[in-house]
Design brief:
CATH class of the largest domain: Alpha Beta
Distance between the termini: 20 Å
Number of strands: 12
Helix content: 25-40%
CATH architecture of the largest domain: 3-Layer(aba) Sandwich
Order of helices and strands: HHHEHEHEHEHEEEEEHHHEEHHHEH
Oligomer: single chain
Strand order of the largest sheet: 1-9-8-5-4-2-3
Amino acid sequence: MRTLLESIEAPAHWGGAPAFAERFRFISPLLPPLDEVLEDFRAAYDAGVITNAACVRRFEEQSAAYLGARDCVGVSSCTSGLTLVMRALELAGEVIVPSFTFFATAHAIRWNGLTPVLADCDRETWNIDPADVERKITARTSAIVAVHMYGNPANVDALSNLARKHNLKLIFDAAHAFGSQRLGLPVGQFGDAEVFSLSPTKLLVAGEGGLVATADRDLARAVRLMRNYGDDGSYDPQFLGQNARLGEFNAALGLHGLPLVNKKVQRRNQIARMYVDGLTGLPGVTFQKVEAGNRSTYKDFSIHVDGSLFGCTRDQLAQALLTENIETKKYFYPPLHKQTLYRQFDRTALPNTNYVADNVLSLPIYETLPDSTIACIIDSIKRIQGFVAHRSFEANAKS
């Protein structure tokens, strides 16, 4: 007589057939038609002016219109944008930043000779926790750098109130968030500046590049000069800048990507709902909370895996899915306070960050993934959980 475990279809990691015959891409950018991009770029190319020219200006203007921002400044990357903004704001001393973020957020702080103070995240939204931010504020604090994690809008109101109360600058790393909304308002209108990424993993793609959105005209002017070494054309720099220019081809690519953003956000939200609907109720699996009235871009879709309930750890699940030819990522593990460059700044317990980062698993999400692929990924996770749970049950029964 077959045991219950033998009656369950074995996942590939335990000898069964893989869910997919071949591995597919974890991320695949949806790009506008190349001939349309080249048509805009050709004038710049023919004129021999291929950086910081007409395409860049148009891209800045149209991006500002989309975001409802007073100014947008195109730069070479989100990281360079963050670095220049901090320099232009003349920050000093300490800057509070979440430990649960991509390390580039903190790199920009350290490049400015500032001290990062690592804050905990909220256990449900996975964004920086305003209560812990307030606990970390000292006489040396000059700014808060918050992140819209995966495009999930941070608690803008609470952070803005803290910044006003303590006379701090507030900067948002909005790398994931072009297309996100906070209570109906586009991300890009908050804080002293919000800085976006335009790299191929984002929803608005320019190949490489970034955008600084701000309502502060003096800040916009400073960043615009600083991306060109601080030179206004007089060969007498007013600011200590660097080469952080945005190329005309990148701007042309971004221009033609702008009309695609809303449909990308809509499709990613559809996929996210499929994942949530399909995995809700599975032991040990929970999801990032998006507050009511907010819209996330779902630049990434991640689940939290409690191994004690699921039946295997996050890492074991990732390996089992890879055997099914399903690639996953651990965005963002390890968190900053466990990384070589930032361990020295680990001053206080960050329990929520450890809880999230140690168990987070990012699943494939992009616009061209068909529903059938999403359904198969969901089925694979369920099959793995069912198999390991029953294997554990039978092992315990025998003992």
